[in-house]
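> example.struct
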């Protein structure tokens, strides 16, 4: 199955890895969610949150494979996610799929 990677929002200064949106995704989709608990400003300067997230992403690719990962994020987390994926694209690191779906009776080809 798929594994969702969540990067929370909060203007780079608020929020944490127990973000409600990640819990809703886990419950609704029935898949595991890995929420990244990055160091926030002002303690961390740019690009610390991006580098921390990229480290988690690389570890998850090693554990699950890039094709099983999907990203979710909100607000500042979306900026971190985009920057993380852009950095990953410059390295020989596989990207996750845009959409991670498993066949079920309602969405399988007929």
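> example.seq
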């Amino acid at each position: 199955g798929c594994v969702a990677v969540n990067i929370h929002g909060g203007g780079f200064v608020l929020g944490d890895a127990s973000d409600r949106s990640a819990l809703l995704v886990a419950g609704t989709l029935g898949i595991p969610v890995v929420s990244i608990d990055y160091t926030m400003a002002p303690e961390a300067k740019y690009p610390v949150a991006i580098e921390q997230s990229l480290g988690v992403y690389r570890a998850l690719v090693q554990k699950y494979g890039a094709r099983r990962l999907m990203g979710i994020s909100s607000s500042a987390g979306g900026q971190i996610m985009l920057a993380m994926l852009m950095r990953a694209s410059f390295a020989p690191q596989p990207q996750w799929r845009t959409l991670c779906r498993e066949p079920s009776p309602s969405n399988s080809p007929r």
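> remarks
The chain is about 35% helix and 15% strand.
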